[in-house]
Predict the structure.
Amino acid sequence: MTGLLQVIALSLLGARLVLSSSGLAFLPWAGFALIPIELAVVVLAARRVRAARRGNTTGGDVLTQLQSSCTMVFGSAIAGRAAGHEIASFHYAFARAPAPTSKVGAATENRFAAAPPFASSLFAAVLGVGTIETTVLHLLVVQHSSRVAWFLTALSIYAVIWLVGYQRSCGSRVSTLEPGALVLRVGLRCDATVPWDNIASVRLLTWRDLPGPMAGYLDAAKPSEPNVLLEFRHSVRVEGPYGIPRSATRLGVRFESPEPFVAEVAARLT
């Protein structure tokens, strides 16, 4: 499958370079022919994820499983992480919401969910305004070009799905306190695994003592404000959206239950 995808991609690139202008007219049809292959990639990745979940591998984390499966399909870690993130946004947008856990239960199970980036009421308002603007824009543009109008509408629908998945992923992907390391999962925003001996300190944050711009600081709570600050002894690799890596020595996160999280982490540092 990996070889097939590479051959198709190189063939389309070569066609654009060597074909005449009349021959290039047939390339859009080749694009339509790729749709079944793209669907096959998604189905293959989904089947691999289902098999991994039955085997209870990668801790049951959907994003990790999707990225691993897509890496096997594409034969590239970079493409696999990006494709896995893209598919995961659709999964979290439509998947059934996880059962809520209390603060006590979260502390007992060593599982802590990050707070969603938007409050529920604000998020509903953003979606409502976006829907109205998309409808108005479509009605205006369709008078000049139906293709452009539907293209812009499709982009808007995709953006809504991505935002919903981004919002809901915070409650589904939780940070865990493992025996050897802190596994941070902040929705689809960032992932990091930090050994306990590399964590220098952890403390609660309020709006009065939010850190300003500084070297090595990564704010994983935007557009909200972080309520927990983690400081590391050495630089930590943090994977952001689409698997894009960054290095950080300080990390700001917003948790649903910040006090139990700080207490549990601090207890392991003493």
Notes: The first strand starts at residue 111 and ends at 113.
